[in-house]
Structure formats: structure tokens, C-alpha cells
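Chapter review: from sequence to fold.
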Amino acid sequence: MKRKTRRTPTILISLLIICLLSALCFGGCTNTTKEAEDNFAVVVAGKATPEKIAEAAGYLDVCLSKRINEDKASHMVAAYVEYLYRFITTDVNTATLSSLNSYYDFEKNAIDEEKIKLSEELSFYELLKAGHVVITGTQTPGANPGDPTTTTMGVDIYYQGILDAWGDKLTQGMRQVYELNEKIRLEPALENATILVSWQEILDRAYTAEKILMENPEDHLIWDDMNWLYSQYLTILLTGTSNNPVFDYETKHFSVDATTVYKDFVLAYPDTILAAMLTEYFNYLGGINFTLDYNNTEALDSFFTTCDNLAARAQAQLKEATGQNSAPEHSTGFPDIDLNNVLDKIKPTGK
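The C-alpha cell string follows.
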């Protein structure tokens, strides 16, 4: 790409305009918390653009620097994160994003700020950076030898930036949510039905999600975010994926690695809902001798039905434990099972 003339004045003008707009909109921050929230709702309404993202971040900088309680601050930051999510999934200009390919350092997984300094894309990049949106890049080798590598540019929410800016203003639960989301951003668990992390890591994340939910029973912001994530990890733990099943396709035996990780967890954290679910899961596996033939349709259907039931009951028990489902029509808990008897059955020989 041809080098452009220096664009710094344009960038400064853009940022000054944002500051002026922010100053006009931010009057509510000097009045009541309700006015601040109402004004912010206006800021994050409509289509998300780089300019409006930076403006919204500036608004939060001003508002959250003043005396405001953690619940209100958490609601405003959550609305901001939702706005960012709308931008990265719907509103981002893909053509402008693709043009950043020339400035992306795939070894450092970041934009080379020296290269982009004199380009016309600098303003776009600086606005996203100010708004806690990070540029991502992936390279996919060609299907056949000699085929060119495909480069794909993307955007994601920079949760660590949000924590650095406003983490001390948030509730502990929301900080934990964003910490987990940043960990997931840096190291996703799945990609195209392939598990990218260990069974231990998946179980650790499920346990973290369960703890966050248990400790914040009345926070709908946390439940909206974490309950969905919790359910996804439950499914992975119980069934694996098509590319990484819990039973070996050839030997038909249950994974030794998963068995070790799950058993150690049950012994270490016996009072958790995850442990109760895994104990009954082991009891079921013992009944099928820790083997499953994926070509046996009847056995496979029974396995997936059992896993769906276990995951649903774990989520229902979590709601009961946190008072969200205090009068269920029937018991959703797991039966008392002799753990030692279950563990005696664990004799998998798979991989």
C-alpha cells in the first residue's frame, strides 16, 4: 500500500470533536446518577461507529471518575460492552478493517503502530483503541501445497482494557466476569468443533462460572452472561465435540485424560454442583463399562439424552441453590451416590 501523507491533524480534529460532543452530552455526570444513566443510554443508542465507541468510553471516564455506586457503574459498563458487541458483530466496516492487514504483525498478534503511523487508517485504529476494541488477525494456509495463505482481520472486545480503565468501579462479580471473558478471548476453548484447551482448563472455567453465579444470585447482568457460558462448558465436559469426542472413535473407550481430571475435581470439590453432576455421570459411565460405539445409533441416542438431562439438571439445581427456582414441580437435584463405589468403577482404557 502506498504511504500516505501524515494524518495526525485529522486524528486530532476527530478526537477534539469527540471531546466537544462528549462535553455537551456529559452534563448529566455532574448531576444525578439517573441523569448520567439516561444520557449514556442516548450515547450508546443507534448504530455503533468508531467515533461513538470512543465517545462512549470518554463518557464513562468522566462519569465513573465521580462518586457512583458499584451497581450503577456495573450497569453502565455492561451497556457499553453490549454496544461494543453490536459493533464487532454487526456494525464494523469490514472493508476498512481488511485494509489493516498491511499493518498487522502476526508474530506479535497486534497492529504495528510504527507502520500505521502515517496511514489514513490510523484514525480508525486509534478510535477503536480508545474504545477498548482490539484488532485481531488470522492466517489460514491454502488447502493444497502452493496455495496462497488467506488472511482474515477481525475485532474483539478488549476486556482487560475495560478492567484497567474502570475495574475498581465495578462489583466484584462483574470484574470476575470480565476477567474470565478476557481469558477466553486470549485462549478460546473451541474453534470449528475442535477443542483448543485441555479438559482441565474447560473444567476450571466451568467451575469459575459456577462460583460467580452462586456468589451473585440476584445479579441479572452476571446471569445473562455467565449462565449461557456455564451451559456450554457443561456440554463440552459431558459430550466433547465431533472432533474431540469423550470416547475414542476406534477403541470406543472413555478418555483417560478426562477421567483423571473429572475424578480429581470431584474429590477436591465434592460440594459443588459440578461434582454432583460428574458423580452421576461416572455412575452412568460405569453402567456402560466406560465404552461407547458411535456407530450404534441406539446407544448414541441414549448417551446424548443422558448428557442433556445431566446438564439441564445441573443448571436447574444451580437456580434452586440461588433461589431462582424455589418451588420446582419436581426435584432437580442429583441423588446421593456413594462416591467411593462410583470411583471403583472407573477403569477406562482409552486415550
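Two observations follow directly from the output. DSSP finds 15 helices and six strands in the chain. Residues 297-321 form the longest helix (25 residues).
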